[in-house]
Amino acid sequence: MDKTLKIGILFSTTGPYGSMGRDARDGAEFAMEELAAAGRQTIEPVFFDPHADLSAYLEGARHLLRAGCRHLVGTITSAARKEVIPLVEKHDGLLWYMCPYEGFEANENVIYVGGCPNQHLIPLFDHLIPRFGARPYLVGANYVWGWEMNRLARELINNAGGEVLGERYLPLEERAVERIVADIEQRRPSFILNNLIGPSSYAFLEAIKQLGERDPAFRAENCPVVSCDLMECELDDIAAGAAVGQLCAASYFDNLGTPENAAFKVRVAQRYGRVRRVSSVFASAYTAVKLCTEAILAAGSDDPPSVRRELYGNAWPTLFGALSIDPETNHAALPFHLGRINPNNGFDVIASRPPLAADPYLTRRDKQAPPKLRVVS
Questions:
Q1: Which of 35, 65, 80, 161 is least surrounded by Cβ atoms within 10 Å, i.e. has the fewest?
Q2: Would you list the domain boundaries of the chain?
């Protein structure tokens, strides 16, 4: 393609998950800068910031599509994703979604670069239950992510012969966590699954730290708080030291020791300085833009059906390794990493698995051997 390519970028950079939105926007912009510098493709980004207003996401998607963007990279929350999908379908666009989510979705007009539960929650529980027991306490944000993740957690615990000791929800920006923490102290779970988001999550981690100082049974090494949605870009928003030792599952962490990540971190340092940590949302937004653009170039068109056909059957070099997209679900195969928060506001990777094929509906059906993929150079 010789012409400038328009890509819509739809992230909230303010509000309860603003730190994630800012990091995602940076990752998308960085990918565009690299593509232009390498002579691969000049991209005209069209930005829209909904400022965490759910109704504004629909306005944003409409604005981007009318501006000529057939491909949209964005949304952080599942509520926002579900808000814009019908409009993307109507215009036969393609939404590139790059955050971990709760699964039970596979839309023809969405490419899922973020993980679903068999790529984060299930391997997380596989690690936790033998080490800490199957008596967790579940907390979550009062919307689809919290509801569905905790529903799946209950099923996993029941299947393991365990017991969920409590389940509570908070609005996105609610910081009054005292009653939940008091209930946790009384019930004494073996670990805590934290599906809160933003300020609620930060306040909860700070309160659990204080509980652990009063009662060693609740220190991170004895009763960890575990998440599938906590990232490097958020750690500076948490009181100093409050989250040290707690665990998070992700497909990427800043300190991964892979050759791809080492080379990437050098380029990030040149652009942003050596102190810049790369979060999974930065890495996923970067990967989504790179993958979208390379597939468009390979197809010779930004026509979404042509781009989807080009995606299938190829293994694309990315920060996550050679990444493939399942033609049945439009989901990426992604690695699993378990990180422990360290005193430097980063994650130490303590366990990993190679890329896992996505199973968004958890059908657990026997799959045929995957086809051999052409590695894109």
A1: 161
A2: 5-115+254-335, 121-227
